[in-house]
Amino acid sequence: MDNMDQNNGASPASAGTAKAGDAPFRWCFIGSGKLAHIVAKQILKSGRHKIVSVFTRRLAAGEAFAKEFGARAYQSPEQAILDPEVDGVYVVTPHTSHYTYAKCALKLGKPVLCEKPVSTDTKLTEELFAIAKAKNVYFAEAMWTWFAPVAYQVQKWLSEGECGHIEKVIANYHLNSQHYSPRVTDPNLGGGALLDIGIYPLTYLYRLFGMPVKIYCKGVLDNGIDLSEEIDLAFRNGDTYRASVSICDFRGLERFIVKGTKATIKVWFFHNAKKAVLKRADGTRVRFKGNGDYLNEFDRVVTEIREKRTESLFVPPQATIDVMKIMDECRKQMGLVYPFEKRG
């Protein structure tokens, strides 16, 4: 049995990233929670990024974050965004406030990398991209899966016909994450499986196979949130693939598998994968390795901003908008309406 290793990404993942000789890119962080800490530690170690300002609703938390990472804490988002050293803004707050803070930064003319999902519905998502276009300023969803090389290699294998006729696709993301953070189960913060982790397999299916022509979704709702769902996406070629999502169990874990007549592709922990394996029918394997951490995402965003781009090559606006449309339809079919939507 032959084994081959590949390390080269596919376009646009092969595009250049921030260089060691460049001056550090200076970030304003909106949010100082668990994810903000994880991201900060990863990107600062490179020396290519610096956090100069931070805003969070709890000033004490912002001050603690600022002290830990060498930044300045501010009492309002506007003050943090308009710090004279800020080059770009990273929004890393609960889902329901992404729109507000991203809109604020865009209107102030600052490039924005906003955590997924960038809002809670399609209308708000489209509005953010419209503002970015009107202001001629960069705006991208922090869908780190598609800023990384592995997803593009999977896409390349499929586009080159390596799998032959696709017979089955498995897109599972089951993570017992109810206790990861209070926001995960809080309906007032857009909690639940769909917006938090369902967005990953749906984005993966969309980026590989396009916009579905029909969507079928059945979910389990409890206390104002979706605990799990089975989502079938039917595509123009007649094939239907399912995304299975849950925040209550580890059934199936997190895996993306494409089974074809000529080969099978397997990607474990696909949302931040560092490896994908192609196994051909003759038994030969090709292993692709690539960086899947946050630094990869931030380096590429900085390059795009410095190239004066207003839209990302890696996570295009239409991809973000279309996946939000899919999730809106899923919520409609489940009858999932968040409390803040009922209040109008």
Provide an overview of this structure.
It is a single chain. This protein is an alpha/beta fold and 344 residues long. The chain has helices at residues 34-44, 59-69, 77-81, 95-107, 122-135, 149-159, 193-209, 294-306, 317-334, 339-342, and strands spanning 3-6, 25-30, 49-55, 72-74, 88-91, 112-115, 139-142, 166-174, 214-222, 225-234, 240-246, 254-260, 263-268, 275-280, 285-289. The chain folds into two domains: 19-144, NAD(P)-binding Rossmann-like Domain (Rossmann fold), CATH 3.40.50.720; 146-292 and 311-342, 2-Layer Sandwich (Dihydrodipicolinate Reductase, domain 2), CATH 3.30.360. The chain contains ten helices and 15 strands. The strands form two sheets. A nine-stranded mixed sheet has the order 1-15-14-13-12-8-11-10-9, with helices on one face. The chain has a six-stranded parallel sheet with strand order 4-3-2-5-6-7, with helices on both faces. Helix 4 (95-107) packs parallel to helix 5. The model is unreliable at 1-10 (pLDDT under 50).
Helices and strands in order, then pairings?
Elements: E1 3-6, E2 25-30, H1 34-44, E3 49-55, H2 59-69, E4 72-74, H3 77-81, E5 88-91, H4 95-107, E6 112-115, H5 122-135, E7 139-142, H6 149-159, E8 166-174, H7 193-209, E9 214-222, E10 225-234, E11 240-246, E12 254-260, E13 263-268, E14 275-280, E15 285-289, H8 294-306, H9 317-334, H10 339-342
Helix pairs in contact: 4-5, 5-9, 7-9
